[in-house]
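The protein record now logged underneath.
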Amino acid sequence: MNAKRALIACVALVACSADDSVSTPDADASTMPDVAAESAPPVEGGACGMRGLPPMSRVGTDLIAAGKPFRFLGYDIWSETWPSQTNLPNDGNVKYYPSSVEKVETDFARAHALGLRAIRVFLNQSMVPYDANSDTFDWTSFDAVIAAAQKYALYLVVSLSDGNAYGEPAWETSPDGGSVVIKTRQWYAKDDAGTAPFERANQYPKSFVSWATLAATHVAGDGTIGWFELQNEPHTEEANGGCIEASPSGQEGAAEALRRFADVAGGAIKAADPCRLVSLATIATSGDCGSKDGTNTQCHALDASCTSDWEYVNSSAMIDVVCLHDYSYHYATDAKQTTQFYTGWTDENHVRLVEAQQLGKPLYVGEVGMYAPPSSATNCQAKGRVETYPAACSDRVACFGLKLGAMFGTPASGEVSLSGALVWQATSGTSGLEGDCFSIGPTDPMDALLAAHVP
């Protein structure tokens, strides 16, 4: 995801902290090769930037790499770290294939050739083989992903768990014993034991906090990891779909539980790797439980200065980079939304841009996607998962071009300048059956569009 190879050590840990006084050793990007040289295998521990790409830090609302502001465009290839078919989702409409060294090499070479600078991958605990006898995880597949990313000068955005059901054991997604396919508030909130389920081992060998600590320890000092996401699209709703905004008697409400998750889990990562940036990876839609907008939020009872639950949970000192996911293309047939979405941002995203500026933290789009054209995803078409494009643009490439132009344009007054975006999602095959209905295969004209919009 970026184009540099250097060994830059942080003389003091504070130099890589999330504080606005952060500074990164200057480096001339023009002296760095297009493809990073092979490095020694990852070694656990070490000061920040002792291996891999120049370490990522931030100064206010800017991400910094090699001493310069870092803006990026990249792909989501979330299953790149998954070494086997076990737990890979296949609902009859979409299919994911286990990764391999060859697949990673091909995918990352493709991204590099386009000039992309980042790849987002998932690293759920279920993705890494575990040996109960030795109580150890086998990081071989993940290490191969890191090595390929360094080779092709791509920063990795690594999501450590999923708020949804993919690859997660049943209890992890439904601690109340229900059939919901997302983690509920009960997974995040303290219970009668005085801790939350994410702090205890359940169906996984390790608690989430232990897992985050192990992952951070394993890559400590490797600048190729741009930042960790604590969780992909966290939700704190109830099993029945409701959202408890006010704190229940003796319990934590939606935003309060999510904020404590950010504090505790983010703190665990920084204890293991003080230089590492952390994101909560919220979807950031106005109705998303735990990160809502407006007056019907919990944050006002907890912090009178807050503007939304999203702002409140992301104000955690353990969160360095804030995130939103953008799939608002469904508004394409509405004239007002068409204007806002395709030539600017929706009202909703404008709020996030303003709040990120107020927080003084970089903002990135962790996922942005539109359905693939019907001809390339016939099963998706049969399920109604196809796009109806507005008059402003005729197909996915044209509409996405307007979207990217708006994303990386000049921000309005009071808005933060977007640091980057990751497009959901690149796949290795040409069939819409690989990946999901948003898939972008290697022959898709979307590749050329992204290459033309790299900031």
